[in-house]
Design goal:
By secondary structure, the chain is mainly β. It has one domain: Jelly Rolls, CATH 2.60.120. About 5% of the residues lie in helices and about 45% in strands.
Length: about 140
């Protein structure tokens, strides 16, 4: 499997497990992009994300420029709001950066399909084109 393999193209909600599309709608504006917010300044929010083997991180919305770094090796399945499903493999230290223009976002979940806990560090840049979503919303 490649690092990012699309297994169901955009618009393929019918291939999602029952109830997943409703879960996406219920969490469409969730700003909780990690398990724990470990630091916040006027410039960044730093999150840790821990997803045990076989478990999921529910849908959440990224509106800020950010990057994640994989702390552990593993694999996941991701569903995005356009209906795309992807299988993704990670190596320790692997990092991916995202930038969003005004009004753009990424709404997705993350299911750990591997045998070990997935651990990531995510850094959101608060001085992005979009205003941060309120954490207490």
């Amino acid at each position: 499997m490649s690092n990012y393999e699309t297994i169901a193209p955009a618009g393929s909600f019918d291939r999602w497990p029952k109830g997943l599309e409703q879960e996406m709608l219920d969490n469409a504006f969730s700003p909780i992009v990690g398990s724990t917010l470990v630091s916040e300044t006027d410039k960044v929010r730093v999150w840790h994300l821990l997803v045990p083997a076989g478990k999921r991180c529910t849908f959440h919305r990224h509106v800020l420029d950010y990057f994640w770094t994989a702390i552990t090796a593993g694999s996941s399945r991701q569903h995005t709001s356009d209906g795309t499903t992807r299988e993704v493999d990670y190596e320790p230290g692997q990092t991916r950066h995202f930038t969003f223009a005004e009004g753009e976002y990424l709404l997705h979940d993350l299911e750990n399909t591997g045998d070990a806990e997935l651990i990531f560090s995510t850094v959101e840049h608060l001085d992005s084109a979009n205003k941060p979503l309120a954490l207490d919303a």
